[in-house]
Amino acid sequence: MDELFGIPLPLLFGQLLLGLINGAFYAMLSLGLAVIFGLLNVINFTHGAQFMMGAFAAWMLLNWFGVNYWFALILVPIIIGATGIVLEKLMISRLYKLDHLYGLLLTFGIGLVIEGVFRNEFGSSGLPYRIPPELSGAWDLGFMFMPVYRGWVVVFAAAVCLATWLVIEKTRLGANLRAATENPALVQAFGINVPRMVTLTYGAGVALAALGGVLAAPIYSVNPQMGSNLIIVVFAVVVIGGMGSILGSVITGFGLGIIEGLTKVFYPEASATVIFVIMIIVLLARPAGLFGRTA
Amino acid sequence: MADGMIRAETDALLAVRGLEAWYGESHVLHGVDIDIKPGEVVTLLGRNGAGKTTTLRAIMGLVGKRAGSIRYNGAELISARSDIIARKGIGYCPEERGIFASLDVTENLMLPPVVMPGGLSLDEIYTLFPNLKERARSQGTKLSGGEQQMLAIARILRTGAKLLLLDEPSEGLAPVIVQQIGRMIREIKQRGFTVLLVEQNFRFAQTVADRHYVMEHGRVVDMVKNEELLTSLDRLHEYLGV
Ligand SMILES: Nc1ncnc2c1ncn2[C@@H]1O[C@H](COP(=O)(O)OP(=O)(O)OP(=O)(O)O)[C@@H](O)[C@H]1O
Ligand SMILES: [Mg+2]
Question: What is the distance between the alpha carbons of residues B237 and B242, in angstroms, rounded to a whole number?
């Protein structure tokens, strides 16, 4: 059997794999957004730009300093996460007492500025990033060839999501984070430095976006728009999964990636819009999202 | 004013002077004076809206703006942030209990960090509150009202805080649970904790406290020693409108 519903299996699995890869990025990015939104109540519209900065940082490390992919996986989240910390300290933290809209506008504006600066410096054509030799090549799975790097992206992103979930749900630090998401004033009155926790959480969310950027560099060309193209879909994922729900954003991210991939096979005309159609249906039926708690 | 209100600051663990507090534009406390000696259990009595909760919140640094003086163990806390205040050794149990829905019982219990040595160990806490051990894995807000109150008090016994601010722990609980809470407060007094207890129910307050402050319109207006409570009933009835 090499067909299913009249679709050649290699095509079906190929799109399924592409869907999974997109889903991996949706999951990682919406996870960071969810963590940030939970504690800061800020919808971080700079997220796409921070993802893009992650990819560029990996490219710069490799081409300017000869630092390879594996070190970039560790260094880039730290470097870009640190820029997030500075951003939160200098700007975002001044807006917590105001309406959410101000945080949204600020982060949106910063995202545009960052994108503009990168376009100015690097143009918009895109820079290539070589797949690291250890992960190049493909496996013959019998029914299709599976590029090793793509398998790696899916597995690694899933592991990062799982690890983040474990930290939040199973550790002391995660308990502090959950409690501060519910009632920051009381958590602080127990002696926990909540403002510092907010800053570090923002940094961690940004680090996740940057890590996604490093993963993406060898797949997509490294270009200033790569974040804004992705982030629109990621916001739809966050809305569908439910604002602030950690597990919800991971499951929804992978799930919607797969649905999008399958739509490309069965009804390609709708593949660009299917996620937004789902978003509208979910918003009408469950305004808090699939996994969100109704306030 | 009754004697004992004016006391040398040196022997007070907590000395509050002329404490004022605001929520936004509304001026709620108009000069509160309170002294508590180490090991004492002192209540704040007063009608709804008198400012009892606000007094505790102001001591914890949880109101918008405050003025006056709050000296704890000799340190001035009037402009300190609430986490710094907690780290000086003050434990706070809020009126709404503040049990976290996204944390299980153990996580709720372990949430406040240990700020200094001398707190109860987990074993001692489970001996004092056996229910909490049985329900360790339950979601915090799935506990009964009485159990949530126990949890809210238990978690600040662990931290090494020497002064506990308890806001109406008896509120809305069945009489047997209130008695249990009374026993628990006497037990922690025995262990050397100092307690500032907000209460509306002075029959309950009488069973646990050394002294009682009466609040009205954002001020402390009277102080009654527990021994004098029965002879001061008429006066108290008037303040409390019972
Ligand atoms: N968050 C707030 N914003 C504005 N005003 C407030 C706020 N909380 C309390 N108040 C007002 O401050 C005054 C004192 O309230 P507080 O809660 O301290 O009283 P209380 O003595 O604890 O009363 P109760 O016995 O009902 O708990 C009241 O008039 C109340 O309406
Ligand atoms: Mg009150």
Answer: 5
User: Residue B146: CB within 6 Å of ligand 1?
Assistant: no
State pTM to two decimals. Answer: 0.90
What is the total count of domains within chain B? Answer: 1
Does B107 lie at the interface with A, CB-CB under 8 angstroms?
A: yes
The domain spans of chain A are: 22-101+122-224
Coil, strand, or helix at residue B225? strand
Residue A134 in tokens: 């250890």
* Atom number of ligand 1 nearest to Cα B57: 18
Residue B103 covered by a domain: yes
Give every CB contact of residue B20 below 8 A, 6+ residues apart in sequence.
B27, B29, B30, B31, B32, B66, B67, B68
Token pair recorded at residue A211: 């890590």
Residues of chain B contacting A178 with CB distance shorter than 8 Å: 100, 102-103
Q: What is the CATH number of the domain that holds B139?
A: 3.40.50.300
Q: Is B28 near ligand 1, meaning CB less than 6 Å away?
A: yes
Mean pLDDT along residues A96-113: 92
Cα B15 to Cα B12: distance, rounded to the nearest angstrom:
6
Question: What percent of chain B is helix, strand and coil (3-state, nearest 5)?
Answer: 35, 25, 35
pLDDT tens track for B57-98: 999 999 989 999 999 998 999 999 999 999 999 999 999 999
Residue B67 identity (one-letter amino acid): A
Residue B65 CB neighbours (<10 A): 12
> Hunting for tokens 């127990």 — which residue is that?
A190
Checking ipTM against 0.85, whether it exceeds it is: yes
